[in-house]
Amino acid sequence: MNIELRHIDKRFGAVHANNDINLRFVQGRIVGILGENGAGKSTLMKILSGFQPADSGAILIDGRAIDYTGPIAAIANGIGMLQQDPLDVGAFTVLENFIYGSGVGLNLQRAQAEARLGELSGRFGFALDPHQPIDNLLIAQRQQLEIVRLLALGVRTLILDEPTTGISAEQKEVLFNALRQLSHEDGMIVLLVSHKLEDVIDLCDEVVVLRAGCMVGRLDMPASQDLNSAIIAKTKRQLVTMMFGEALDAQSRPHYELDAPVLVTRELVAQDLRLDMQPISLTARAGEVIGLAGLGGSGQELFMRACARLERVAGGSLEFAGRDILGASYRQLFRRGLVFGAAGRLEEGLIAGLTLTEHTALVADDNLQIDWKAMRKQTAARIEQYRVKGSADDNIEQLSGGNQQRVLVGLLPDAPKLLIIEQPTRGLDVDSARWIWTQLLERGRRGAAILFSSDELEELVTYSDRIIVFFAGRVHEVADVSATSIDELGYLIGGEFPA
Ligand SMILES: Nc1ncnc2c1ncn2[C@@H]1O[C@H](COP(=O)(O)OP(=O)(O)OP(=O)(O)O)[C@@H](O)[C@H]1O
Ligand SMILES: [Mg+2]
Question: If you average pLDDT over residues 471-475, what whole number do you get?
Fold first, then answer.
């Protein structure tokens, strides 16, 4: 199967999301789709997979022009896209979802379907129990289910939009190995949208780069047997230059004089039914940045939420700005300068259906009388300051992922005492990620203590004064971050704590 995109064009109002894109994808190749936040990557992939029509242009499969009417038509033509939130139905089991989504419905015997599911997941080492309810699955397992479902439907091109967000390193290896088999052994086309340049260099055969809606370059990736740290660094520099039009300097951060303790936990135990949380004693001082590392579900999220009074505490004490806060609500603490930022952008932090201005109004005050004119003005100023691609009256879900993240950070108060923030740069391009950190550190300079979690080891090592590693509810502190390599941190995250 070969795909050709000819003169694909798409506008959203004033935004030229895809500007006359011409591309060819040939079978047996894994192609990375790169570009800064808002470059038009997701738009192009949605057009190719039938989730969105182009304004003009043509898609040719093996030389034949295809007229899409939706994702089902795209799948019938062999092109399937892994949705960030797969359309699974909670009450169903894995097997029911596999059958339901496969279109064959009742014609396919359950036993037959189960055998097919087992065969496909066995081949790729996917851990899918057919009788598990979908609700119980991890993000990585939902992805795996969606992949086998699309394969059962006969897809020959698989599109993945930022699939490594929120999955562990181990799960990522399983996913990447499956993608290698599908392309290199079965001759499928795999298209991968990602901001993680190491992943792209590791997995892809070539990349295409979009900038401001235009296709600006194409580059072959070094062969996997040639990969070493020098080649990876060189390729990263090349990619960054293509994406942003210039090279970026190495990251570093200023360190501030640490001041009075802002957050003090003594033997704090966050309550959880599944995890046996160890008591944690931690002091965060004004100006300090503490990174929380660990695989998803290792206890760091619980600990952060317990500190923000969003989760129950089973024991120990908790002080903020010198006062016991075990009896306080998050709402009260927010007014006193404790701010929590959630990782799930559209699930928790932002509200789909509301405009940017309405978000500003939400966090502004408890004042019942909303001054919309002032709110719109304030929103416009934030858009300018945070260089958000979007306008005050846009609904939040119209923004690209990275721009949603900018809005979320833009909604944080200017001078909090304590910032507890999950995955601050998830889904951001390299340049935006640095820029978000400049904004966070500026709050540190003004005296905020910052507690953040991240899946990115480089981010943890670059920005933390100290790192607390979580594994199965236990913790290990890395006090001297500069003496710790990314590899060492990786082992710690895997639970190999020194005795
Ligand atoms: N449904 C929509 N309505 C209005 N504007 C949209 C819509 N979808 C995308 N856009 C705009 O089109 C541009 C390209 O968005 P797209 O989501 O394709 O970017 P992206 O490259 O995937 O970015 P990111 O890396 O942040 O995910 C952005 O400026 C975005 O705001
Ligand atoms: Mg996107």
Answer: 92
- Domain spans, the chain: 3-244, 250-337+413-499, 351-412
Close Cβ partners of 113 (under 8 Å, ≥ 6 residues apart): 95, 98, 99, 102, 104
CATH class of 3-244: alpha beta
Q: How far is CA 239 from CA 178, 208, 225, 228, 461, in A?
A: 25, 10, 20, 16, 22
Q: Which atom of ligand 1 is nearest to the CA of 404?
A: 26
pLDDT at 346: 61
Position 219: which residue type?
L
**53 CB under 6 A from ligand 1?**
no
For residue 389, the ligand closest to its alpha carbon is 1
With a 6 A CB cut-off, is 12 part of the ligand 1 pocket? Answer: yes
CB atoms within 10 A of CB 83: 18
Q: What is the Cβ-side half-sphere exposure of residue 424, based on CA atoms within 13 angstroms?
A: 30
| pLDDT band for position 84 (cuts 50, 70, 90) | low
Supply the pTM of this predicted model.
Answer: 0.84
| Half-sphere exposure at residue 210, Cβ-oriented, CA atoms within 13 angstroms | 31
* Ligand 1 pocket test target in 15, 207, 391 with most atoms within 8 Å of CB: 15
Q: Which residues pair with 31 in a beta bridge?
A: 191, 206
The residue-averaged pLDDT of 37-63 equals: 94
Tokens at 255, concatenated: 């360190």
Q: What percent of the chain has pLDDT over 70?
A: 94
What is the CATH number that goes with domain 250-337+413-499? 3.40.50.300
